[in-house]
Amino acid sequence: MVEDCVFCKIVKGELPSRKVYEDDSVIGILDINPFSRGHVLVIPKRHVVWFHEMDEELTKRVFVAANRICQKMKRAYKVKYIDLFARGMRVPHVHIFLIPTIENEENVFDKFINLISYVQENLRPRFSDKEMDEIAEKLRRA
Length: 142
Ligand SMILES: [Zn+2]
Fold this sequence. Notes:
This protein is α+β, with helices and mostly antiparallel strands. The protein contains 4 helices and 5 strands, in the order H-E-E-E-H-E-E-H-H. Strands 1-2-3-5-4 form a 5-stranded antiparallel sheet, covered by helices on one side. Zinc ion binds next to helix 1.
């Protein structure tokens, strides 16, 4: 629990939320600024800023909860697919975005990702084959 953390306050019930899931370690709440119908934030109850700072047990619990929430989305709506990404910014407490794309409905996030794909393909940093081999080797050995 961190005093001025919005998500810690939501976990404690000191701020309102539209909770759709809860277990011992994790809550799932509707995002107040949804990219699409049913956009959920998956939040560990323990205050951790980045997902890569969670220990393996909490990581497992958060992603199992995310999967369970996805199954709920699929039961509740005609979901085509669900995007997932993790952040620790704006609110510095891990939150996993689950953004469903529902048949015949708009998903603004998906449009944004398509723009990002254009940027990735056209404006990304260029690495030679040799550099790519070195990067892969460095990560393998790390
Ligand atoms: Zn927090």
